[in-house]
Write a structure and sequence with these properties.
With 285 residues, the chain is mainly β. It has a single domain (2-267), classed as Thrombin, subunit H (Beta Barrel). Helices cover 9% and strands 34% of the residues. The protein has helices at 13-17, 145-148, 196-199, 245-256; strands spanning 2-4, 32-36, 41-44, 58-60, 73-76, 81-85, 93-97, 103-114, 121-126, 156-165, 168-182, 185-191, 216-221, 225-231, 237-239, 265-267. A six-stranded antiparallel β-sheet has the order 4-5-6-9-8-7, with helices on one face. A hairpin with a 2-residue loop joins strand 10 and strand 11. The longest helix is centred in the last third of the chain and has 12 residues, at 245-256. It is globular. The N and C termini lie far apart (37 Å). Residues 233-237 and 272-285 have low confidence and may be disordered.
Length: 285
């Protein structure tokens, strides 16, 4: 279990904001400076604004049947299991880029959908454990709002979004926002931030202008700990999955016969009590 120490009255959004600048250079967006996996080469772009963060646990579905391109991305939640978007059909092979720019390839052995299509979550089981060079990301606990604070009616949290862009990926910034309760779950969608500096890092389309989807989102926590928070569904909305931890844990147990467990974040203390609300309000400005 990963422990994150939170200071009293701490607002974690500043962790992402401190990494941004006004009018970022175009070179600040690409995740890779060199990308040629057919020849075994993929190099993280250290000029990327998010280049100091650990994306080694993002397994990218890179083969489209003709060329190696960065496709949908899943995130490792155990040494053998990946959280993936259900509507983004995987191709049976995922690749990881380690910190020393080594390409590590894994095959998908089995998969299962979590709940139903509306929740757009799938758990993949790989054929073998990933190496120690591939990060397993800790998940937010179900009571995350007790620690991160805020009014659930108006949560706007900046997240790192790994966006497909031609033969590369962009590290974009989106704001998440609670829109309503659907299917008995809290539902969030992402949008361009009203904060001008964050908005300069916004991207939701690929190089041809087609809206991207099925990609992982991350919040940044103290110590530059990344925690995946949402799997994208259709037009940029989907389940905020701490509400699905029981189902995700059950899927991992079912696939692995109980030999793997989720890595959960454990916070030192709550900084503000969780807000409550009685009437969900949709699409607030």
């Amino acid at each position: 279990m990963t422990t994150v120490r939170l200071a009293r009255n701490y607002d974690y959004r500043h962790l992402l904001d401190r990494m941004l600048v006004d009018n970022p250079a175009s070179s600040a967006m690409p995740l890779f400076s060199t990308f040629d996996p057919d020849n075994g080469v993929a190099v993280f772009n250290r000029s990327c604004w998010a280049g100091s963060l650990d994306f080694t646990g993002v397994g990218m579905d890179w083969y489209d049947g003709v060329n190696a391109v960065p496709g949908r991305g899943g995130v490792m939640i155990t040494k053998k299991h990946m959280l993936y978007s259900w509507h983004a059909t995987h191709k049976g092979e995922v690749r990881f880029i380690t910190a020393d720019n080594t390409i590590e390839t894994s095959t998908v052995f089995a998969s299962t959908q979590v709940s139903n299509y509306h929740h757009d979550i799938e758990v993949l089981q790989l054929g073998a454990d990933v190496s120690d060079a591939v990060t397993v990301y800790p998940l937010l606990p179900a009571d995350y709002a007790d620690y991160l604070g805020g009014d659930l009616d108006d949560l706007r949290w900046p997240v790192v979004f790994l966006d497909d862009y031609g033969t590369n990926k962009h590290a974009a910034v989106h704001d998440t926002k609670l829109i309503t309760i659907q299917w008995d779950r809290l539902m969030y969608y992402t949008q361009e931030s009203t904060n001008a500096r964050r908005a300069a890092y916004y991207d939701e389309t690929d190089a041809t202008g087609v809206t991207d989807s099925g990609q992982p989102y991350f919040v940044i926590l103290p110590g530059d700990v990344l925690s995946p928070v949402m799997m994208n569904f259709s037009v940029n909305y989907g389940p905020f999955y701490p509400d699905f931890l029981t189902e995700i844990a059950a899927a991992v147990t079912s696939l692995s016969s109980g030999t793997y467990e989720l890595e959960l974040l454990a916070f030192d203390k709550a900084i503000r009590p969780r807000a409550t609300f009685s009437t969900p309000q949709s699409m607030r400005n």
